[in-house]
């Protein structure tokens, strides 16, 4: 009996260790067939775009705040948050741009939380030189708070080989969260760990990549990591204009990176 207890304890310890050290969702099973060649190559991006992507995802601070409310607009598909920045050296206001008036109607005049990447260069609208722009990044404030912070598990494959990603990498306190909030955190990690948006000269080995946001109940959302349009933030960040939100419950992220040219 002692031997059985010892074996059972060892097994339980093994399971406990496995659960705490490897937040893998599907083991090493890939949840979709990825054709690497369908993904855009880093070399297809202009140097300016690559540099700006690195700036956006790694260096730039993000607009993060809770419980804001605004009825103000510049155009009908925008919401203008006056006095959003309290101690920014340049900006006072934040102009949030969406791809439809329907999205605006959902959030205008309501208590909202914001989390997104903002920019000033080529920001059109509001008080010139005092307004920063952002695409999406808005969720309703009321009844959207988790009782405890959600740490989102990430599966990452580098050239088909699974790599462990710390469970602390992407987290949120929202039940319903914008994909932008999760994507900004994930890509910051990819830049820090894999030099995602570095040129080849500066040890940027990754040539193609895909990030996929999975939930158990909704269609997955994916972005080609080098599929950005244009060269500057006003087009590079436009992928977030749909303000896509997903349930943080039972969700995980799959990332596929490739180093071959």
UniProtKB/TrEMBL annotation:
SUPFAM superfamilies: Bacterial enterotoxins, Superantigen toxins, C-terminal domain. Residues 52-140 form the Staphylococcal/Streptococcal toxin OB-fold domain. Residues 150-257 form the Staphylococcal/Streptococcal toxin beta-grasp domain. Gene3D superfamilies: 2.40.50.110, 3.10.20.120. One of its GO terms (cellular component) is extracellular region. Keywords: Disulfide bond, Enterotoxin, Signal, Superantigen, Toxin. Residues 1-27 form the signal peptide. Disulfide bonds join 123-133. One of its GO terms (molecular function) is toxin activity. Belongs to the staphylococcal/streptococcal toxin family. This is Enterotoxin A. The lineage of its organism: Bacteria, Bacillati, Bacillota, Bacilli, Bacillales.
């Amino acid at each position: 009996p002692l031997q059985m207890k010892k074996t059972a304890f060892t097994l339980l310890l093994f399971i406990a260790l496995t659960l705490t050290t490897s937040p893998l969702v599907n083991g090493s099973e890939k949840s979709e067939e990825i054709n690497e060649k369908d993904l855009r190559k880093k070399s297809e991006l202009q140097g300016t775009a690559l540099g700006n992507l690195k700036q956006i995802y790694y260096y730039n601070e993000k607009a993060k705040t809770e419980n804001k409310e605004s009825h103000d607009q510049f155009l009908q598909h925008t919401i203008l948050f006056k006095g959003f920045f309290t101690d920014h050296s340049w900006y006072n206001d934040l102009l949030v741009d969406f791809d439809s008036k329907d999205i605006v109607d959902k959030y205008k005049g309501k208590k909202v939380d914001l989390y997104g990447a903002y920019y000033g260069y080529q920001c059109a609208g509001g008080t010139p030189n005092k307004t920063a722009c952002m695409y999406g990044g808005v969720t309703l404030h009321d009844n959207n708070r988790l009782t405890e912070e959600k740490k989102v598990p990430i599966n990452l494959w580098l050239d088909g080989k699974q790599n462990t990603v710390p469970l602390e990498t992407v987290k949120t306190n929202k039940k319903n969260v914008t994909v932008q909030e999760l994507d900004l955190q994930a890509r910051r990690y990819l830049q820090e760990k894999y030099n995602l948006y570095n040129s080849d000269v500066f040890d940027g080995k990754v040539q193609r990549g895909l990030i996929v946001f999975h939930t158990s109940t909704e269609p997955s959302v994916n972005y080609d990591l080098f599929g950005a349009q244009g060269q500057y933030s006003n087009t590079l960040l436009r992928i977030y204009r749909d303000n896509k939100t997903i349930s943080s419950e039972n969700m995980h992220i799959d990332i596929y990176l490739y180093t071959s040219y």
